[in-house]
Amino acid sequence: MSLSSDRDCGKSEIVVSIRGLHKAFGQTEVLKGVDLEVRRGEVVSIIGPSGSGKTTLLRCINALETYDAGSIKLDGVEVGFNDKRGTRHRRRERELSAIRAETGMVFQMFYLFPHLTAVENVMLGLRKVRGRSKSDAYALAQGWLSRVGLADKVNNYPAQLSGGQQQRVGIARAVAMGPKVLLLDEITSALDPELVGEVLSVVRQPADDGMTMIVVTHEMAFAREVSDVVVFMDGGRVVVQGKSDEILEKPRHERLKAFLSRLDAGRPRQHTEQM
After folding, report:
1. Mean pLDDT rounded to a whole number for the chain
2. Which residue ranges form the domains of the chain, and what is each CATH number?
3. Which of 22, 116, 141, 173 could form a cystine bridge with 120, CB 3.0-4.6 A?
4. Rounded to an integer, what distance in angstroms lies between the CA atom of residue 151 and that of residue 143?
5. Per-residue confidence at 10, pLDDT binned at 50, 70, 90?
6. Checking DSSP bridges between strand 28-39 and strand 213-216, what pairing results, if any?
7. pTM, to two decimals
8. Are strands 181-185 and 103-106 parallel, antiparallel or unpaired?
9. Strand, coil or helix: 72
10. Count of CB atoms situated within 10 Å of the CB of 197
11. Measured between alpha carbons, how far is 50 from 272 in angstroms, rounded to an integer?
12. pLDDT digits (tens, 9 = 90+) for 252-275
């Protein structure tokens, strides 16, 4: 079942616009002219085999990678570059940091600061980037930790938390910043199977609240339930995209059919992209 009908209002505005995006690492071209639009309040799931460019695409949106050609615009503002007198220049690090604050990202690994408690990890960006007072940041961080089911863990350090709990702290940290778009990169790939469900249930909350999200995932049931749009990437290109039920339940493209069949067969697959 798709939740898109509950979030249809206010989706005419494009938040993320990607045109002709190219990215290479040395002689290896990873993104080969990607086009994608994401509307406000929309949940877009990106699926595809390892090495298809999914993680690289997210990292370009979040200004963690410099793209070689094409355009990424966040609310109409070019992400990685600006034009000066008709010449394209890489943005300064201060500008890139400001853009990253508007594109909250949750990674495959948890990347929590081990010397900070759960609430301090969530507070850090609120204090340093958003300029919130200590009391305001604490209240907001505590609120989000409660929403992800960690009200009794706010003073625990990462080493005292399970993998699923650490990933929930990471989600709270990203969402608390109020980003224009939330990027989720295979957030369950480093978890034991029994912890996957608890993390995905947490992600459903901001999706239901209308947060704009781009989700890279191999969890097809999750993609089917929360996505407005599913995008299938292969070989650095967007091969097919459409409504979740059309893409996942009635696939027509042969490459997509083969990919879904392998997942259904339960064959071992590598979650972490190499590029």
Report:
1. 88
2. 12-102+216-268 (3.40.50.300)
3. 116
4. 8
5. very low
6. unpaired
7. 0.87
8. parallel
9. strand
10. 15
11. 7
12. 889 999 999 888 765 444 444 444
